[in-house]
Automatic annotation (TrEMBL):
One Gene Ontology term of the molecular function aspect: pyridoxal phosphate binding
The protein's name: Aminotransferase
Keyword tRNA processing: no
Organism in which the protein naturally occurs: Blattabacterium sp.
Gene3D superfamilies per the UniProt record, alphabetical: Aspartate Aminotransferase, domain 1, Type I PLP-dependent aspartate aminotransferase-like (Major domain)
């Protein structure tokens, strides 16, 4: 049957984060005590003021199709949020609300990319970037980074990667999977390169914007010389713990917004009406309303940093955002652990799930086979138990 499938489908892989989570659930259903540190899903409930807004929306009758790109009042709230938090000026005609930031990204890629166009992606990258680019039959150009530079690219690397075929640069800050946050000065230096190549568009994924610790978040669209090259992607899944509500959005040049509206109108039409109304309330709230979650993530980050020090042969840096740590585990490759030969990060992640019943995600899914992504979006108790198990098996 495989040869009856489209070549586009055969060219992409399943999401390894979702696949690992499915394996963890399967073991849990068999009665095993599995701790799932594979998914980037906060364990908090959405804030009460968001829940109340959703209930009111139901009572007020928001049950029907909305405009494809979202309610005007939500788009207006997004514009106000962009200006308040990021000092970015967008109008409602530049906003498209989608069924999660993931749909927002694929809308943009389908709008821009043709066969054999090149898309520059720094590695490590979020798992779906590479697969989405391949789905568009375009060519990913990967820029490797080093832990010593907190997994961030240098301007020289960027300029060297740009060719006459380059259509787009795609990255995230704060970064999934590394937790790295590009500073204002670092983005300013990259912006100087992009200014020289006005035909290159920039898609910046800022879904973890509010989950920053020592480094303040900066949007690359803040630099006026490249503002018209930038598509800013954001959403409510992470900072507001609204993963299942599926609300993402873009701020972009109007011609991009119009093309995304066109694509979305033929694919899924509008996002959920109730979730949109709740999103208005969420975005109108000052970020200090969710500060309690950010403080808890930072506390968990610090706990992970303390516990991971005690595990032999794990190399790691200090993430400044998101809720992941991305340790290098290649020190275990080529060795037998409890009778099992470990050759790569896929086998190491499988080994941990088998022997410790802790689910993580192989670094190969993110473009770095030497590492492992561990989420600390779970409770302190689960984090402590997970790292205790890993330490016991590996040490």
């Amino acid at each position: 049957m495989k040869n009856r499938l489209s070549h586009r489908l055969q060219n992409i892989s399943y999401s390894q984060t979702i696949a690992m989570s499915a394996k963890a659930r399967a073991l849990k259903n068999k009665g095993y005590d599995v701790i799932n540190l594979s998914l980037g899903e906060p364990d908090f409930l959405p804030p009460n003021f968001v829940l109340s807004a959703a209930k009111k929306a139901i009572d007020k009758g928001y049950h029907y199709y909305t405009p494809v790109s979202g309610y005007f009042e939500l788009k207006k709230a997004i514009c106000e949020k962009f200006y308040r938090d990021n000092r970015l000026k967008y109008t409602p005609s530049q906003i498209v609300v989608s069924t999660g930031a993931k749909q927002a990204i694929i809308n943009v890629l389908l709008s821009l990319l043709n066969k054999d166009d090149e898309v520059i992606i720094p590695a490590p990258y979020w798992v779906s970037y590479l697969q989405m680019v391949k789905l568009c039959e375009s060519s990913p150009v990967i820029i490797p980074t080093m832990m010593e530079n907190n997994f961030k690219i240098y301007p020289e690397q960027l300029e060297k990667a740009i060719t006459s075929k380059t259509k787009l640069f795609l990255f995230s800050t704060p970064c999934n999977p590394t937790g790295s946050v590009y500073s204002y000065e670092e983005l300013k230096d990259l912006a100087k390169i992009f200014k020289k190549y006005p035909e290159v568009m920039i898609l910046t994924d800022e879904i973890y914007e509010h989950i920053c610790y020592s480094e303040k978040h900066t949007s690359i669209a803040i630099f006026p010389d490249i503002y018209h090259q930038v598509i800013t992607v954001n959403g409510l899944s992470k900072a507001f713990s609204m993963t299942g509500w599926r609300i993402g959005y873009i701020g972009a040049p109007e011609w991009i917004a119009q093309s995304c509206d066109k694509i979305q109108g033929q694919m899924t039409s509008c996002p959920n009406s109730i979730a949109q109304i709740a999103a208005v309330t969420a975005l109108e709230a000052h970020p200090n309303k969710i500060e309690y979650m950010i403080k808890e993530f930072e506390k968990r980050r610090n706990l992970v940093l303390e516990m991971i020090k005690e595990i032999d042969r794990f190399q790691f840096n200090k993430p400044n955002g998101a809720f992941y740590i991305f340790p290098k585990v290649s020190g275990f490759f080529g060795q037998k652990l409890h009778g099992k030969m470990i050759q790569n990060s896929d086998e190491f992640s499988e080994f941990l799930l088998e022997k410790t019943k802790v689910a993580t995600v192989s670094g190969s899914a993110f473009g770095d086979n030497e590492c492992l992504r561990i989420s600390y979006a779970s409770s302190e108790d689960k984090i402590i138990e997970a790292f205790t198990r890993i330490k016991k098996v590996l040490n």
